[in-house]
Amino acid sequence: MPSHMADVMIAVMPFAGHVAPLAAVAKAFLEDGHAVRVYTGSAYRDRFDATGADVVTWSRAPDFDEYDLPATFPTLRGRKGPMQALANVEHVFIRTAAAQGDDLLAAYQERPWDLIVADALSLGARFASEHTVTPWVTVSVVPLAIPTPELPPPGFAIRPAGGPLGHARDRLLHAILPIATRRLREAYDAQRAASRLGPSPQPFEHAFHSPELVCATGIPELEWPRSGWPVAVEFVGSLTPTGVVDAASPPWWDDVPADRPIVHVTQGTLNVHPDDLIRPAFTALGRQPVSIVAATGRAETPGLPFPSPPNAFVTGLIDYARLLPRTTAMITNGGWGGVLAALSHGVPLIVAGGDFDKPEIAARVAWAGAGIDLRTGTPKPRAILRAWRRLSSDPGYRERAEHLGRELRRHDGPREVVEHAMRLLDDRRSGSAR
């Protein structure tokens, strides 16, 4: 057991796309000899129990079903697009923060931790860290959204621009951002008050990341160029480079022709309506000389409500360790974990980013030269077909994806999170500044 053994609390928002990477982090801390607890929703108790961590489930915080958010948050019912994204941030991530913090403080009183490592969207971890004055590390499982004046504000999916007009545009966007996010700011201030905390020591734009250390999934080549970061940022590559783990091979896996290229289509694990992307992809590629492997994103609902073309194979979830080495292209809604998994295997992408961080991810993939941004979450079959033909005929996309894959594979993400976090803790214990 290491001499620097620590008691670590890991806070994870209970969404599939957040759980997989943080489960890898929990396992890495345990393998390094640390005591680990995980705070998350009850739906994922078994997932973290399997790592050997002690699990603390949401109690005061509403223990919601990620696949039926309106059942717990009725104001989300019927919302789509940007309005849904803003409402989700307000009600799911911000307005649960004080209750999350209370759950975490109860766990701390039972057994104090030395360090809290949190999914960057777990605001309760920030509150608990402020109350306990313990080090807080954020692990960003989505692209970094740390604002700097030299770039457009995060979330607009706008490429950086040069010249006077471009800088004027960015200044205007930064000026209107406080107006656009007023409700979020008000909700955040109310949650701080409910958690018995004073005014925030940082502006609202910095609420979701630690001022001491951010471990960012991805690599600098997938970030907009900038002169520096206002906080300590360490890129750790992909935390789950093969995507879904321990998913059994579907019964048809051995029937996928070995002499045909595979195009993987995934709707992700949130907003998984198959009409958005899977149906138009089937229409676009159903007559092309490829095998389409489609994942619905739900293990319990592996089928589709419409017919599949003869060259399509459908499952709920699939192990990327088996699939991606045989895949020539991925058509995706832009989930960050899936994008990083594809790039880790050198697979170029066609991205249909509709809401949340997905348009931003699509823009970054296109800017990096590793894929095509369809600029919508509900593309027409013709747009998908054109993008696939372009991707297939231009080797530059695969070459760029393979380059990014080599950079991602240089990292051992979970191990690096442990190393960076323990360095911060050691600095705190010794009284030195990072």
UniProtKB/TrEMBL annotation:
Pfam entry (one): EryCIII-like_C
InterPro entries cross-referenced by the UniProt entry: EryCIII-like_C (IPR010610), Glycosyltransferase_28 (IPR050426), UDP_glucos_trans (IPR002213)
Domain annotation Erythromycin biosynthesis protein CIII-like C-terminal: ranges: 309-422
Superkingdom to which the source organism belongs: Bacteria
Entry protein name: UDP:flavonoid glycosyltransferase YjiC (YdhE family)
Species of origin: Agromyces flavus
